[in-house]
Design a protein that fits this description.
single chain; about 250 residues; alpha/beta; Rossmann fold; SIR2/SIRT2 'Small Domain'; 2 domains; 6-stranded parallel beta sheet; 8 helices; about 30% helix; elongated; binds ligand BV8
């Protein structure tokens, strides 16, 4: 199916980063954070209610992600560009491991955890803030925005109830409207609007291949389910596709 594809695309979720040691979004977290579900904290309301709690939650996840390296699954997707240059990778992940693995066309639907911005976007959406240039008491939660001094600085990720960034969403829609084969990797298919993208692609005639060790919300609608961890399945798939070039 991949060999015949003219415009393949990829959609990834937290599962593709599991073998890099990053817990998936719905995995239980350790220690202090075990009693929280990320969903409760990944909202603007939670941040307004308790900015320090939410800020510390992201600092904790940034610490978790810092040592993480691309795994064989990320690397296989980057290698696939030998056959499909600029292979679009629509990702829900905020860890930037696809870019680190060498993928050149990553569409980040939910932002990047390493980035911060003004909560009010006081200089326009988004108003990036580089916290390494700010001196503040790190135990007091987020610093005030250095531009407006009114709002607090927040992680530049998309929270529940927030719109996806129009540039990324527009790019994803263009890919979905033209792809003839979508590889869907490591997503539970729960979070909208991303979870609707495979079906939209299929309605436009695309074939769907899912890579996931467990059944997901989209498994019933795919043409082929490769059941297994992406760090093992993807290298074998990509080797097959690239070897027939020889
Ligand atoms: C929006 C960034 C429109 C932050 C994330 C009620 C109130 C408010 C909103 C809603 C509501 N009901 C529904 C909604 C919409 C909501 C939504 O979908 N909620 C869900 C929970 C029902 N969506 C939104 O709010 C979105 N915005 O709709 O705006 C709007 C706005 C205003 C007004 C009107 C309309 C915004 C959603 C974005 C949220 N931000 N992340 C952060 O990370 O802190 S989402 C978060 O979930 C992560 O990005 C994560 O990637 C994503 C999805 O999860 P998955 O990636 O699928 O990960 P998960 O853990 O679920 O699954 C892992 C999978 O991997 C599993 O299937 C597992 O089997 C598999 N796996 C495990 N090991 C491996 C593996 N696969 C491969 N290899 C392995 N080794």
């Amino acid at each position: 199916m991949l060999r015949q594809a003219k415009q393949p695309s990829v959609l990834t979720g937290a599962g593709v980063s599991k073998e890099s040691g990053i817990p998936a979004f719905r995995d239980a977290l350790e220690g202090l954070w075990a009693r929280f579900h990320p969903q409760e904290l990944a909202t603007p309301q939670a941040f307004m209610r308790d900015p320090k709690l939410v800020w510390d939650f992201y600092e904790y996840r940034r610490e978790l992600m810092r040592p993480a390296k691309p795994n064989p699954g990320h690397k296989a997707l980057a290698a696939l560009e030998k056959r499909f240059p600029r292979l679009p990778i629509i990702t829900q992940n905020i860890d930037m491991l696809h870019e680190e693995a060498g993928s050149t066309n990553v569409i980040s639907l939910h932002g990047k955890i390493a980035a911060n911005k003004c909560f009010y976007n006081c200089q326009g959406d988004p108003t990036p803030v580089d916290v390494t240039q700010i001196e503040w008491d790190k135990n007091s939660g987020p610093p005030p925005c250095p531009h407006c001094g009114r709002a607090m600085v927040r992680p530049a990720v998309v929270w529940f109830g927030e719109m996806l960034p129009p540039p990324a969403l527009g790019e994803a829609k263009r890919v979905i409207g033209s792809t003839d084969l979508m590889l869907i990797i490591g997503t539970s298919g729960v979070v909208r609007p991303t979870s609707e993208m495979p079906l939209t692609a299929a309605r436009n005639g695309a074939k769907l291949i899912e890579v996931n060790p467990f059944e997901s919300e989209i498994s019933r609608g795919v043409d082929l389910w490769l059941q297994g961890p992406s760090g093992e399945v993807l290298p074998r798939v990509v080797e097959l596709v690239l070897s027939d070039e020889a």
